[in-house]
Structures are given as C-alpha cells and as structure tokens.
From TrEMBL:
Name under which the protein is recorded: DNA-binding protein
Superkingdom, natural source: Bacteria
Taxonomic source organism: Streptomyces incarnatus
Keyword presence, DNA-binding: yes
Extent of the signal sequence: none
Coiled coil regions, renumbered to chain: 162-189
Amino acid sequence: MSEPSKRSDSSERHEAIDISDFVYAATGARLRRLTMPDGSHWFPAVDVCKELGHTNPQKALSDHVPADHRESLETLTGGYGLSVPAGREWRRDLNVISLQGLILLVNACTKPACAPFKQWAAEVIETIQRDGSYTLEEAEVQPLEPGAPIAYAMPEQVAEAIVRLEAHNLQLDEELANGQRKSIELQQETLDVQRETLALQKESLTLQREMLATQKATLAVQQAMVRAMERIADRLDALVLGPRMSAAHAGVLPTTESVLADWRQRLSVTADVWAVAVVIAPVLVEKGELREPLESLAARTGLSVHRVNECLRLLRKHACIRSRGGAEDGAPVYVLSKA
C-alpha cells in the first residue's frame, strides 16, 4: 500500500500504523483480533458488524466481503497448524474476517463516526491514482537503536478520528460516573428514608405500648372502683337495706315459709323453679345472701346447671331475688329483693 511497506524487512515485520489504533479509528471500538504467524490480522465478524451497525452479520458478509477474506475460525487456525483459542467466546464455528474484509465493511457502513476513516481511504486511493504511490510522513522522533525500522507519523485524519473517539469515550465515562454518583446518592437517600421510617415505626410502637399500659392501668383502676363500690353496697345493705328490712319495718322477721309464700304469689311456680326456691330460700333467710356455685345448686336440686340458671333468672325477673355481683371464687351472689 505504501512506501513504508517496501522498506520492511521480510524477516521482521513492522506496521507503519499500529493495528490497534488503525482498527480503532476505522470502527470506533477496540476489537478482539487474532494475529497469524504471517502477520495477517483476523477479527470476529460479529464484533465488527455490531460496532458498525450491521444488524444482519451474515447478509453483511455476503454483500460486502469476498469469500477469500472471510473464514471460519476452525478452518483458519487449522491452516496454520494452530488450535482454536480457549474460551467460550472463541467458538470453532465463529466467522472471522481479514483486515481487508473489515475495511470493506467499514466502507459499507453509514455511521457518521466512520466518515473520517473512509475519507482518508479515499484520499489514499486518489493519491495513488495521481502520483503512483502513497507515502506516510516520517515521525519527527526516530528510534535510536541501530537497524530499527523507520517510525511514521499517523495520518492526520486517522489521528483526529482517534482523538474524537477518545474524547467521546471520556465523555461517556464521565456521564457513566455521574450516573453512578447519582445512583449512589439516590440509594443513600432511600436508605435515609428507610432509617427515618424505621425510627418512626419504633416511636409508634413505643406509643402503642405506652397506650396499652395506660389502658391496663385505667382498667385496673376501674376494677378497683367497682370492687370498692360493691363493698360499699354490701355495707349499706348490711346497715340499712338488709334482707330483713321490710320485715323489720313490719315488726315481723322473714321466715323461709313467708318467703316461699310470697314467691308463690309473684309467679307461677313450676316444679323446677320450686326445687331451686326450696333450696335457696332457707340460705337467704338465715345468712342474708346466697354464695353458692351453680354446680352445687344443680347437684342439690338434681337439675342441670343450665336449668338452675334459668330458674334463678326467672326469680330475678319477678323480683324475688336480686344479683349482687360475684364472689371471689366466681360464684354468683344473690340476696332477697325488698318488698
């Protein structure tokens, strides 16, 4: 292609332009490549097509790359007596293209980023057509080692393409870094909100516990007040409203017979009710109150607990007896109703 290639020693190949920079300027990406023992470079077709925007690699190769510049990886390495490189990315059936095939795909690409390289390639062809050759300018600084190959300056268009690509990549890196910083800030804000929420939940739980404790304390006070009022009522009944009050006013103390006779007049007494009445009347007359569990009354009357409770309810309904809460052991407390 150029005069520098004519000066290259066949025993030691020297590239006028570094292949990595050359491909980077052509495609805008650092591509995987295999360099064969004869110095030829081959690239995965899928990588090249992806960077150049060819959505159908098979069609792009068929349309733009001749068969002698594309090959399967297994066939290519086998031709040099080499094995397929290790790794899942280097499959045996992977399609690879030569450097010339890469340049053909670049020329077929419509991406604006490829324009500088294509313009330089066109300039090279025009110069060769006009002058018969194309020569790279020698670099201002040459190697000092004896016998070292001549160093050449990178073409201006290629250098500018690389500079633009590097600037673009730096911008992308900066945008990525900014995005990562914003992501970290959002994560931190989310963490702060979660911590505040947790703190509020803890405060709410503490308040709920305090409210529950207050409710328990209030309930205990109410229960104590109820017990105190019951004790006061007991004293008043004992002092003023005892079970024999009406009889005392009449000058006659109640007896079991008078109580039962009074109850007969108040309600239609069934056998079950009369059985309960006969059991509880003597206790009410003698002790002034009844503190006996329903189970005990059921055993004494031969009735069920449920039926005993119904009989007592009927006696209360007709003002024969009245309830005065419950005893410490849970038994109901009854006294005679006042006439």
